[in-house]
Amino acid sequence: MPDYPETDLAAKVIQVIAQTQRIPAESISLDSTFEQLKIDSLDGINIVFALENEFHIDIPDEGVQNMRSVRETVDGVATLLKQKTEATPPGVA
Amino acid sequence: MNRVAVTGLGIVSALGNSVGESWRCLSEGICRIRPLRDGGNPAYKFQKAAEACGFNAADHFSEKEIMMLERFAQMAAVAAREAIAQSGLRFDGELGDKTAIVAGSSVGGQFAEEEGYQRLYRDGNPRVAPLTIPRTMANAGASRISLEFGIHGPVYAVSTACSSSNHTIGQAFGMVRGGQVTVAIAGGSEAVFSEGLLRAWEAMRVVSPDVCRPFSKERNGLSLGEGGAMLVLENWDHAAARGADILGEIIGFGMSSDAHHITQPCVDGPAKAMRWALQDAAIRPEQVDYINAHGTGTAANDATETAAIRELCGGHADAVLVSSTKSMHGHTLGAAGAVEAVATLLALKHGVVPPTVNFGTPDPACNLNVVGNEARRADIRIALSNTFAFGGLNATLVMKKA
Question: In sequence order, what are the residues at sequence separation of 6 or more whose Cβ sits closer than 8 angstroms to the Cβ of residue B104?
Answer without folding.
Answer: B157, B158, B159, B160, B164, B165, B167, B168, B187, B188, B189, B334, B335, B337, B338
